């Protein structure tokens, strides 16, 4: 079932090319829904066992996959948001066949990233998710996309290739027979070499996370993407750095991650605050959201790098649900753009004519700035709680971000949706049929898990405990 | 009394079949149209491949080990034949447009392939040199065959620099002979392996010989700083010829290097640290120069230089790992480069190739070619799941495990530059464009399309299931005896 879940989307995207034009939307929607359904079935069954067979025997590369705990939670969110993205694509983009195929193609890459329990397999999926993201930007992007594209790809590959070298090093220096995570854990690399390899690995993850100073691709990537916000949703899902550090970084480099903890936590706290500060000055919704996402990711990083159980659980919780509401916010920005033809944050008065759009957007912003009762709060609070036990001052710096977040979010919201309507502004339509679902469903999920977090926490807690056990007495 | 030479026909049969093709093209050229000759040659190439298949695992040798059809030779020979096959197919479509459609083209191609196979099958330095010279001479003619200034210039450049390369190579061989007293790989390996047999003065000569050999080969495979001729020749020659030169000829030159440095001189001191420097320089210069190109054909030429750097990394590994990596990488490189250049050959308006900006919107005019070209570029850049990724991975691994860690890191860093220059054309193709098309309107012809399909299918299949080819290549026993018994 797990293999079906991983590869169903890419099969679907191939199938789309053979599908007559008028049925493509239905087929894509069906495939995405089916993938989500499979994910829910796996959840009901309590995750899957580790499945491992040799893939390239001569190199010790295995095909090892497993979906449980944190990875299952993230996979579910991915499947859910891909489904939402398909729904909105079908409505918003004329002749959406290519875009739908790319969404499904990327979904496979993302699910693979979360399921992989072999380093090379992880790398393969990691890069696979990149190709559709690049194509989305190339086909649907705006005028200055080439620069954004090259920047995005160069940063990503810069990290990835060093990561590949460090993977080779882990296996060779540790003397493990295969690249499977279990084998590598049994044959760890010791000493100073571990730190070097960790830095190589970390560079890739810091680009994806993203972490200051490797974040420069992010705002351009979002700004130059199609204004509907659909590629941005997938881009949000692509921020898998936090997960990578959690799943592979902590387990394979326990000593190095303890050793580098203060530096990394400092970088993370700085990223969170710095991004929030920049976000405050943005006048383009996409850039604002990009920096807001960056700020959240600083939080996630703070949690993961602190290596404290509460904080790591919080980080994973935030990582999962941040995708949900930030993705939905990108879509709401797309809807706003469709109505007023601009992404400027100083439009004014949209609320008077599109009350439902304004209301749902505001609710999603509340989730984003961690208002209690929403999923974001549980994540951020746990991170602060856990990280405080490790480094109170850095946590304090990061904590200021929550105030800054409220400032940038509410200012931008106020200047767009409230204030006076400019004279001669076009008539703005309110939400229509499927748009209700597109914004409403993620919000409903965010509220549900904000109030009743037990199902998600029960899923994540054992996995986090297992990973942190690699640290020994910590 | 001299021993009677041992002449066995079976191991030379694959070479003779190709040579027969060359002779047939020379003679029948007076009677048959070129198209028929090409088809005959295609059949002969396949036959030669089959005869190689029958020799698998036989370890056959001829001329007292001067020529050996061991598995390493067969694997490299097969890669050479794959490249030849693709070149011939493409030339069916484009030779006429490139104004090189006469029987001599086929004859020269097949002579060059004969030389290439001789290198791969060589068991001593003399056979290797003969093969190299046949290959090079035919190559000089091929590069000049078209009646244009650019092509003449590139051919002359190729000839002059190639001759210098050969001269250095021959001098190096003389010194190696002086130091070890033999031309035979196995003999040399034996003497080099037990340095105690060599007087200290001989070691100096051996090192000098090895370094000169390295410089000579560096000319042939285009390692920096001996790469200067490559971009001009590859971009000046007609595209189907560039295809041949950048794949088949390069594979053969690497086969020679593998024989000499992985086998005969494997234990000789000095050359590996020099090769390390050359490799680093190639990686940096090749990738950085490619970044600045605006002409797509020239970009592919520089990309060929950059890939030489990755291939040379494999040579730095132990013969077992490096040989396997090289065996895998060379096939992938051939398939990818041949497919990419086939598309250029089909779509270019003139033999100068196309500008990168001309590729804008190609996806909306020739969707299949655009997707195929994107796959090729992604594979050249080393993005999984395409086969180029595993090629790069294997090269990294071979160098890393033999202690060249910083070289692997450098290779990873320069790959980022590679990604940028491969990505730009790949992405431009998918950007919508309303200006009129800038391609040759009648580019899509069945043989070219078939070649491209072959390359792309290979790249995808071997990317998802690398074991199909790597399973053959990875057997360390193949590469342990590069120098023969």
Total individual domains of chain B? 1
**Mean pLDDT reading of chain B:** 86
Report the helical percentage of chain A.
Answer: over 70%
Helix-strand pattern of chain B, N to C? HHEEHHHHHHHHHHHHHHHHHH
Q: Which range best describes the helical content of chain B: under 10%, 10-25%, 25-40%, 40-55%, 55-70% or over 70%? A: over 70%
The total tally of domains of chain A equals 1
Strand order of the largest sheet of chain B: 1-2
Q: How far apart are the first and last residues' alpha carbons of chain A, in Å?
A: 36 Å
Structural class of chain B: mainly alpha
Coarse structural class of chain A: mainly alpha
What overall form of chain B do the CA principal axes indicate?
globular
Membrane topology (chain A): Multi-pass membrane protein
Transmembrane segments (chain A): 27-43, 72-90, 97-114, 120-140, 152-175, 195-215, 236-254, 260-281, 288-307, 313-336, 357-378, 390-413, 434-454
GO molecular function, one term (chain A): NADH dehydrogenase activity
InterPro entries (chain A): NADH_Q_OxRdtase_chainM/4 (IPR010227), NADH_UbQ_OxRdtase (IPR003918), ND/Mrp_TM (IPR001750)
Describe the protein's topology.
The complex is a heterodimer of chains A (474) and B (485).
Chain A lengths: L1 H17 L5 H21 L6 E6 L4 E5 L3 H24 L4 H19 L3 H10 L1 H11 L4 H30 L6 H6 L5 H17 L8 H8 L5 H8 L3 H12 L1 H6 L1 H20 L4 H22 L2 H32 L14 H14 L6 H16 L1 H26 L15 H19 L2 H15 L6
Antiparallel strand pairs in A: 1-2
Helix pairs in contact in A: 1-2, 1-4, 2-3, 2-4, 3-4, 3-11, 3-16, 3-20, 3-21, 4-5, 4-6, 5-7, 6-7, 7-9, 7-10, 9-12, 10-15, 11-16, 14-15, 14-19, 15-16, 15-18, 15-19, 16-17, 16-18, 16-20, 16-21, 17-19, 17-20, 18-19, 18-20
Chain B lengths: L12 H16 L5 H22 L4 E3 L4 E3 L1 H24 L8 H19 L3 H20 L4 H32 L4 H9 L6 H22 L7 H8 L2 H26 L6 H21 L4 H21 L2 H29 L14 H4 L1 H15 L5 H15 L3 H24 L17 H19 L2 H7 L2 H5 L5
Antiparallel strand pairs in B: 1-2
Helix pairs in contact in B: 1-2, 1-4, 2-3, 3-4, 3-10, 3-13, 3-18, 4-5, 4-10, 5-6, 5-10, 6-8, 6-9, 7-10, 8-10, 8-11, 9-10, 9-12, 10-12, 10-13, 11-12, 11-17, 12-13, 12-16, 12-17, 13-15, 13-16, 13-18, 15-17, 15-18, 16-17, 16-18
Family (chain B): Belongs to the complex I subunit 2 family.
GO cellular component, one term (chain B): plasma membrane
Keywords (chain B): Cell membrane, Membrane, NAD, Quinone, Translocase, Transmembrane, Transmembrane helix, Transport
């Amino acid at each position: 079932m797990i293999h079906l879940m991983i590869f169903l989307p890419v099969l679907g995207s191939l199938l789309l090319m053979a599908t007559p034009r008028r049925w493509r939307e239905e087929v894509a929607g069906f495939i995405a829904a089916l993938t989500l359904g499979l994910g829910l079935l796996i959840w009901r069954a309590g995750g899957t066992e580790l499945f491992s067979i040799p893939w390239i025997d001569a190199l010790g590369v295995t095909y090892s996959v497993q979906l449980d705990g944190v990875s299952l939670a993230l996979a579910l969110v991915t499947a859910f948001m891909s489904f939402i993205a398909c729904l909105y694509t079908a409505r918003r983009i004329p002749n959406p066949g290519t875009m739908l195929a790319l969404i499904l193609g990327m979904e496979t890459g993302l699910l693979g990233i979360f399921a992989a329990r072999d380093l090379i397999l992880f790398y393969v999926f990691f890069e696979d998710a990149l190709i559709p993201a690049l194509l989305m930007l190339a086909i649907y992007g705006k005028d200055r996309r080439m620069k954004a594209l090259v920047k995005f790809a160069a940063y990503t590959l810069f990290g990835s290739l060093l990561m590949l070298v460090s993977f080779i090093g882990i296996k060779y220096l540790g003397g493990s027979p295969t690249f499977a995570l279990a084998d590598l854990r049994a044959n760890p690399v010791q000493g100073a070499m571990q730190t070097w390899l960790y830095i190589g690995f970390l560079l890739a993850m810091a680009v994806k996370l993203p972490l200051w100073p490797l974040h420069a691709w992010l705002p351009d990537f979002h700004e130059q993407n199609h204004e509907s916000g659909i590629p941005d949703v997938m881009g949000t899902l692509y921020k898998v750095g936090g997960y990578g550090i959690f799943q592979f970084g902590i387990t394979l480099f326990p000593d190095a991650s303890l050793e580098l903890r203060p530096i990394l936590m400092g970088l993370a706290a700085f990223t969170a605050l710095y991004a929030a500060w920049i976000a405050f000055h943005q006048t383009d919704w996409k850039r604002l959201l990009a920096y807001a996402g960056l700020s959240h990711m600083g939080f996630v990083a703070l949690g993961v790098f602190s290596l404290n159980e509460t904080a790591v659980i919080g980080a994973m919780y935030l990582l999962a649900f941040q995708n949900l509401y930030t993705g939905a916010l990108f879509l709401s920005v797309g809807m706003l753009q469709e109505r007023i033809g601009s992404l400027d944050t100083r439009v004014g008065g949209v609320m008077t004519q599109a009350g439902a759009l304004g209301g749902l957007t505001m609710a999603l912003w509340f989730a984003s700035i961690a208002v209690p009762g929403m999923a974001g709060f549980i994540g951020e609070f746990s991170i602060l709680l856990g990280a405080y036990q490790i480094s109170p001052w850095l946590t304090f710096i990061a904590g200021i971000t929550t105030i800054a977040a409220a400032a940038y979010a509410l200012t931008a919201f106020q200047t767009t949706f409230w204030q006076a309507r400019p004279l001669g502004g076009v008539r703005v339509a309110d939400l229509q049929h499927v748009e209700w679902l597109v914004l409403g469903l993620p919000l409903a999920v965010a509220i549900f898990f904000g109030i009743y977090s037990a199902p998600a926490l029960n899923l994540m807690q054992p996995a986090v405990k297992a990973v942190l056990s690699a640290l020994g007495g910590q | 009394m001299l021993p009677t030479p041992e002449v066995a026909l079976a191991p030379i049969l694959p070479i003779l079949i190709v040579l027969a093709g060359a002779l047939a093209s020379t003679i029948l050229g007076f009677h048959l149209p070129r198209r028929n000759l090409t088809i005959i040659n295609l059949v002969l190439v396949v036959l030669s491949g089959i005869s190689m298949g029958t020799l698998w695992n036989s370890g056959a040798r001829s001329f007292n080990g001067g020529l050996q059809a061991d598995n390493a030779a067969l694997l490299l020979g097969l890669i050479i034949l794959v490249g030849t096959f693709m070149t011939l197919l493409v030339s069916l479509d484009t030779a006429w447009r490139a104004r090189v459609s006469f029987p001599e083209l086929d004859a020269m191609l097949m002579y060059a392939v004969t030389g290439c196979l001789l290198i791969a099958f060589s068991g001593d330095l003399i056979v290797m040199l003969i093969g190299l010279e046949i290959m090079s001479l035919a190559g000089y003619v091929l590069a000049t065959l078209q009646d244009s200034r650019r092509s003449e210039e590139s051919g002359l450049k190729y000839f002059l620099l190639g001759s210098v390369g050969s001269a250095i190579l021959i001098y190096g061989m003389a010194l190696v002979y002086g130091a070890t007293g033999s031309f035979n790989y196995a003999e040399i390996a034996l003497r080099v392996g037990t340095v105690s047999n060599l007087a200290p003065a001989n070691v100096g000569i051996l090192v000098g010989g090895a370094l000169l050999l390295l410089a000579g080969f560096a000319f042939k495979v285009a390692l920096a700083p001996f790469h200067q001729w490559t971009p001009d020749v590859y971009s000046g020659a007609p595209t189907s010829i560039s295809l041949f030169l950048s794949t088949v000829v390069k594979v053969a030159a690497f086969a020679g290097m593998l024989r000499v440095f992985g086998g005969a001189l494997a234990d000789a001191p000095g050359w590996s640290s020099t090769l390390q420097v050359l490799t680093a320089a190639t990686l940096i210069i090749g990738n950085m120069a490619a970044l600045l190109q605006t002409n797509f054909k020239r970009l592919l030429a520089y990309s060929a230089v950059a890939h030489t750097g990755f291939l040379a990394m494999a040579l730095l590994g132990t013969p077992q790992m490096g040989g396997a990596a090289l065996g895998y990488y060379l096939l992938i490189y051939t398939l990818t480069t041949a497919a990419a250049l086939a598309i250029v050959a089909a779509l270019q308006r003139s033999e100068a190739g196309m500008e990168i900006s001309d590729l804008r919107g190609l996806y909306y005019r020739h969707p299949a070619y655009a997707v195929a070209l994107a796959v090729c570029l992604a594979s050249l850049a080393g993005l999984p799941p395409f086969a180029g990724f595993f090629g790069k991975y294997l090269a990294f691994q071979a160098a890393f495990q033999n202690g060249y860690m910083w070289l692997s890191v450098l290779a990873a860093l320069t790959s980022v530059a590679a990604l940028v220059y491969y990505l730009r054309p790949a992405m431009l193709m998918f950007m919508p464009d309303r200006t009129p098309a800038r391609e040759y309107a009648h580019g899509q012809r069945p043989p070219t399309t078939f070649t491209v399909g072959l390359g792309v299918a290979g790249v995808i299949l071997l990317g998802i299931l690398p074991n199909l080819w790597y399973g053959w290549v990875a057997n360390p026993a193949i590469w342990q005896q590069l120098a023969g018994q």
